[in-house]
UniProtKB/TrEMBL annotation:
Record organism: Monodon monoceros
Keyword Membrane (UniProt): yes
Any one annotated GO CC term: Golgi apparatus
TM spans (from-to): 293-315, 359-383, 389-414, 426-450, 462-485, 513-539, 545-571, 592-611, 623-649
GO aspect biological process, one term: protein localization to membrane
Origin organism lineage: Eukaryota, Metazoa, Chordata, Craniata, Vertebrata
Subcellular location: Golgi apparatus; Membrane
Name of the protein described by the UniProt record: Transmembrane 9 superfamily member
Keyword annotations from UniProtKB, A to Z: Golgi apparatus, Membrane, Signal, Transmembrane, Transmembrane helix
Family: Belongs to the nonaspanin (TM9SF) (TC 9.A.2) family.
Membrane topology: Multi-pass membrane protein
Presence of keyword Cell inner membrane: no
Chief place of localization: Golgi
Length: 659
């Protein structure tokens, strides 16, 4: 219950007639479902009988092409004046272009059949060019997304789960699909859904006796139909009559010639028991919550397994080692020293490129803080899907503001690694990772622009993002770096020798790539189920809202990454691989490659056939965005692993007496 009670609805908090609570009680009120406020932007709208309910279009999407288009990129009927809604950063980046439509819907008022944009009853004529475009979009499996009172439209799918083989016991399994299909293909012919039956559900609000009833929209469904021009009868008042029964043919779109058709719609209202606060539940019904619990139990087992190895190693072996090293006997001189004490003079040798290392780790800290805060806030239900684009906007701004922490940790580390050019280091921290991300996104954006998709980030937004980067993030990173560089560097418990030690001959399993794979598999195993859900939500335009589970999985990921890097470092120290360590404590790929490899290797082939991606640009987008996610994961897990290993190495060398 805990994990699903918060994020479900626009906000579970119902408005009671309390006085304004002071800000100190704000969080408390969120936790206890008592608060006297709604999440910004999602207060309920009350309608009276026959009030207009505006229906807006969001975009057209397809999981096959991954390219969203705006609604009027196809020749739909247009209102006399087209107005676009002002959008937040997240909506623009997602490709939403919310625009008004000519559908006239009145609260609790039925419409049998109405014709759209027909001047004196003439059907709409699509030119050859338009027909070809519509046919192409239908064959690419495009869906149309509309909203009424901020609720997205859904198509009801009734699946019969016939378990007993007995017809009487057929159970209807109702699922909802986001949006409605633009059309369908049948035996190489293409048909367009030109009649929409809207079914809207309202909840009647209880009021005092003398007041008029008010209604709230709680569900928005559509049944799309394809009806041939000849089967529709229309009159002068632009109303129409639908054909009786099943004897009508669908409206075919022939891409080689002009097509004539009517766009029609009908409206039906039904009363519903669903409260306004839980109206999003239908859209967020999970197919299977058990699998998430299964994944978490699976992850916890992995973590316990690691902890077991760790405690065995650390408590038994280390204590024995330290006791042996610290025995002040004469035997010590005659005994040949071996193991991790031998490399004490080489472990803390600064790596070859201290600036790049500290910059990457600074960005890793920045990412870590952002992800932690975003998941936590989303878990409290403040970033529910009803406030469109909020998650992305929050993530962008948080990443900018977390520059202070990134800069501070990078500056302190750079000082520890004997770096001197702090200004250059700060610039490197502020631009290295964001620069790579911006570069990849810019290249992908150019391809999307070429396709005239609404998924392309408009030029003004790009300029705004650049201003945020150089106006907010860069100065904050400099500020943090300045204070971090001035702070006392981390003190290493042992001095570094002038001349590096010889490295003994190694076994095959101490090879770097074997180490990377070993270190990557366990944390990956701990979270791959949750990753699968997130990836499906991103690529298939679904809502992802199980942030309670995600928060747990994130904690498990942090723990397992720290543990595995400590284990790997211990093995390498015992094998006297000090160059690996000084770089790994200097952040060598052993720590970093962990999730990156496994995520990309496993997911790219897994999802490609599922998504049906075949063309060049969709494949490019798929691999480009996956590469970005992998890069971010690499930074995040590498940073966690680095700090865990560094603290471990400092602890164990502080415990032994070294002459």
């Amino acid at each position: 219950g805990l994990f699903t009670s918060f994020p479900h609805s626009d906000c579970h908090l119902s408005s009671s007639k309390q006085d304004w609570l002071p800000w100190s009680l704000l969080l408390l009120s969120l936790m206890c479902d008592t608060g006297a406020f709604y999440v910004p932007g999602v207060a309920p709208i009350n309608f009276h009988q026959n009030d207009p309910v505006e229906i807006k279009a969001v975009k057209l999407t397809s999981s096959r092409t991954q390219l969203p288009y705006e609604y009027y990129s196809l020749p739909f009927c247009q209102p006399s004046k087209i107005t676009y809604k002002a959008e937040n950063l997240g909506e623009v980046l997602r490709g939403d272009r919310i625009v008004n439509t000519p559908f006239q819907v009145l609260m609790n008022s039925e419409k049998k059949c109405e014709v759209l944009c027909s001047q004196s009853n003439k059907p709409v004529t699509l030119t050859v060019e338009q027909s070809r475009l519509v046919a192409e979009r239908i064959s690419e499996d495009y869906y149309v997304h509309l909203i009424a009172d901020n609720l997205p439209v859904a198509t009801r799918l009734e699946l019969y789960s016939n378990r007993d083989g007995d017809d009487k016991k057929k159970e209807k399994d109702v699922q909802f699909e986001h949006g409605y299909r633009l059309g369908f293909t049948d035996v190489n012919k293409i048909y367009l859904h030109n009649h929409l039956s809207f079914i809207l559900y309202y909840h009647r609000e209880d009021l005092e006796e003398d007041q008029e009833h008010t209604y709230r929209v709680v569900r928005f469904e559509v049944i799309p139909q394809s009806i041939r021009l000849e089967d529709l009868k229309t009159d002068e008042k632009s109303s129409c009559t639908l054909p009786e029964g099943t004897n009508s043919s669908p409206q075919e779109i022939d891409p080689t010639k002009e097509n004539q058709l009517y766009f029609t719609y009908s409206v039906h209202w039904e009363e519903s028991d669903i409260k306004w606060a839980s109206r999003w539940d239908t859209y967020l019904t999970m197919s299977d919550v058990q699998i998430h619990w299964f994944s978490i139990i699976n992850s916890v087992v992995v973590v316990f397994f690691l902890s077991g190895i760790l405690s065995m190693i650390i408590i038994r072996t280390l204590r024995k080692d330290i006791a042996n090293y610290n025995k002040e006997d004469d035997i010590e001189d005659t005994m040949e020293e071996s193991g991790w004490k031998l490399v004490h003079g080489d472990v803390f040798r600064p790596p070859q490129y201290p600036m790049i290392l500290s910059s990457l780790l600074g960005s890793g800290i920045q990412l870590f803080c952002m992800i932690l805060i975003v998941i936590f806030v989303a878990m409290l239900g403040m970033l529910s899907p009803s406030s469109r684009g909020a998650l992305m906007t929050t993530a962008c701004f948080l990443f900018m503001f977390m520059g202070v922490f990134g800069g501070f940790s990078a500056g302190r580390l750079y000082r520890t690694l004997k770096g001197h050019r702090w200004k250059k280091g700060a610039f490197c921290t502020a631009t290295l990772y964001p620069g790579v991300v911006f570069g990849i996104c810019f290249v992908l954006n150019c391809f999307i622009w070429g396709k005239h998709s609404s998924g392309a980030v408009p030029f003004p937004t790009m300029v705004a993002l650049l201003c945020m980067w150089f106006g907010i993030s860069l100065p904050l990173v400099y500020l943090g770096y300045y204070f971090g560089f001035r702070k006392q560097p981390y003190d290493n418990p042992v001095r570094t020798n002038q001349i590096p030690r010889q490295i003994p001959e190694q076994r095959w399993y101490m090879n770097r790539f074997v180490g990377i794979l070993m270190a990557g598999i366990l944390p990956f195993g701990a979270m791959f189920i949750e990753l699968f859900f997130i990836f499906s939500a991103i690529w298939e335009n679904q809502f992802y809202y199980l942030f309670g589970f995600l928060f747990l999985v994130f904690i498990i990921l942090v723990v397992s990454c720290s543990q595995i890097s400590i284990v790997m470092v211990y093995f390498q120290l015992c094998a006297e691989l000090h160059h690996e360590i000084s770089e790994k404590v200097g952040g060598h790929p052993v720590g970093h490659g962990r999730l990156a490899l496994s995520v990309s290797a496993l997911f790219s082939p897994l999802l490609m056939p599922q998504l049906d991606i075949v063309e060049f640009i969709p494949s490019l987008l798929y691999f480009g965005y996956t590469a970005l996610m992998v890069l971010s994961f690499w930074l995040l897990t590498g940073t966690i692993g680095f700090y865990a290993a560094y603290m471990f190495v400092r602890k164990i060398y502080a415990a032994v007496k070294i002459d």
